[in-house]
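$ fold --in a.seq
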Amino acid sequence: MNRNRCHLGVAYRYYQKEFRLDSFPACGTFHFRRELKRDNYIGVIILKVGYIRVSTIEQNTIRQEVLMQELGVEQIYIDKASGKNTNRPELNKMLDYVRAGDVVICESISRFARNTRDLLELVEKLTAKSVEFISKKEAIDTTTPSGKFMLTIFGAVAELEREYILQRQREGIEIAKQQGKYIGRKAIVHPDFDKVTAKWKDGEISAAQAMRRMGMSKTTFYRNVKRLAIIG
């Protein structure tokens, strides 16, 4: 079946009859879209879906809502949570709701993602569903070549940031080693390690039995035995 992509207000053929969406003023975009999806129809409604976030419950969303209205957004999802908060229920609902051809719009990247890497991961999820993304402030628009280029730049910046972090980490470890301050990560030892190894040393159990009791591999078991022997 040929499902032509159309914008709101464009005529549809529905049960072999032609209707216009503006003929149903009392019917919201959300409900009409779902009704169409349940029946046999020709045509796909493309929605502009907006995402708004403010850091606290007390903050006002009116400024962002006005922008969404100016941009012709038809469905809005609002989260009231810190940008560092990974629990954003409305964002998850929006990601689940959007369909191929839809466009997700936000006021700025800082409202949509926690950081550059988070932005790229979210856009990747949208792209996998054939959904476009627009961030008004940064002029990122994946429906245009220039917008896609901007996103590529953000990806390069994120990778550069990651490399800088790893480089500083390596340099810091090297300096700490030279000063004799670096001891590496603290080894995780099973709480019953001393008790079990004591039985092993006394010949009450075999090494294989000791490993099974603590869920350790042979390498980990003997490495810990050696390390504790040195400390002792």
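$ fold --in b.seq
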Amino acid sequence: MLFPKVDDSAIFVGRSDPHELLGTHSIHPFKLDGREWMTVEHYFQAKKFETTSLEHFEAIRNSSTAKLARKLGRSNKNLLREDWSIIKRIVMTRAFYTKCRTHSEVAAVLIESEDKQILDNSQYDYYWGCGRDKRAQNIYGNVLMDVRKKLQNEALVLSPKS
């Protein structure tokens, strides 16, 4: 099959849309690793420099918007931590899970998506997004589905058995 079949019930999210609850730019502050973070994007971008430049790390953490955090996180690539390609998915997963545990309305939207496929509707990002032709890796969509599964499992453990 040249182009993969996308389920008709699939949910498309805009990772960088500040109004998208399931995105990284929505302002839903949370505490993680002993610090307060305005958005998932702030956390994700800052972690790139945690072991190499505390100054750049803090500049990103304290940036006024997720868009600025992203811009700063994409600069100074020479300071990028060596293990970034190995840990970036884990960093994103921890941040989004913590966002959900901090903000029940975000968790509810994710849980209510049941078992539907979730796609990051980025046409040009072939790692995090689904790409223009929907054949990309869709790692962000997979992160959301992984977090959803964890939240669903936690709800099963906490709910009384019938």
